[in-house]
Structure to design on (271 residues):
């Protein structure tokens, strides 16, 4: 479902993490108010719980109502759809997911992240059959899909061509052990950056935070950062603008909210 306006969304994975109490959340904040607090410090959250099991329509509606009007949730799609030998057989799982209540998020539904196991290798025929199962619209609402592939076999121009054919984003795995595929393949960009460390107060050094903010602005302006590694020799067509989703994930998780807020701070200064 398209967001209300094009822009850059920066956030973290989930909002319940005990070490964030006293570092991100005030010590006296009740747990039931953590989403309310996080959604006002950040501009988006990637929900991990949807990967492991379905949520109720009432839960999605509650998340929608607890967050600001311009806040966005991205959802990790259920593992039952992606952790399988034959992806072409995922149709029932995909259909159940979209019938589970996700549309209760309304305009706050960002993108769906289809995460694959690090052992899952690229099979062009089976992968295309999977992409054909992903709905472009559900009940009249446009759905954006991102593919988080983590096996080196996906660093293949044929995969990039396939992703562009179906207008799905390839998740840019920044600062991680996974293959970095920065090719723009959709009308939006989805990046998960995983390099936060304990030694940095804000997770990343100042120069690294500056770089991620600049990359986000380059993507949002319709271009592509020249300092990120791409696979295909064919560049994406220049666009007038793109939505950008950046999630600070993994790394030294305790520092992730600080890193996300620092990137947001830099983007606001540039407005």
């Amino acid at each position: 479902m398209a967001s209300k306006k094009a822009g850059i969304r920066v956030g973290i994975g989930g909002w319940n993490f005990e070490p964030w109490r006293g570092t991100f959340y005030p010590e006296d904040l009740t747990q039931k108010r953590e989403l309310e607090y996080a959604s006002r410090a950040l501009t988006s959250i990637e929900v991990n719980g949807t990967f492991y099991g379905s949520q109720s329509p009432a839960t999605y509606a509650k998340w929608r109502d607890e967050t600001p009007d311009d806040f966005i949730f991205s959802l990790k799609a259920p593992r039952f759809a992606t952790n399988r030998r034959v992806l072409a057989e995922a149709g029932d799982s995909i259909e159940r997911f979209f019938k589970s209540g996700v549309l209760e998020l309304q305009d706050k539904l960002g993108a769906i992240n289809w995460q694959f196991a690090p052992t899952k290798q690229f099979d062009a025929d089976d992968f295309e059959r999977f992409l054909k199962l992903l709905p472009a619209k559900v009940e009249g609402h446009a759905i954006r899909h991102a593919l988080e592939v983590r096996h080196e076999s996906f660093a293949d121009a044929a995969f990039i061509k396939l992703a562009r054919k179906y207008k799905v984003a390839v998740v840019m795995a920044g600062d991680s052990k996974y293959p970095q595929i920065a090719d723009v393949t959709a009308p939006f960009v989805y990046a998960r950056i995983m390099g936060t460390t304990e030694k940095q107060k804000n997770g990343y050094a100042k120069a690294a935070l500056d770089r991620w903010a600049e990359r986000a602005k380059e993507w949002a302006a319709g271009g592509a950062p020249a300092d990120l590694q791409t696979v295909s020799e064919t560049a994406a067509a220049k666009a007038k603008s793109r939505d950008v989703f950046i999630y600070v994930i993994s790394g030294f998780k305790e520092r992730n909210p600080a890193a996300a807020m620092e990137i947001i701070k830099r983007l606001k200064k540039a407005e």
In short: DSSP finds nine helices and eleven strands in the chain. Residues 8-270 form a domain with the TIM Barrel fold (CATH 3.20.20.410).
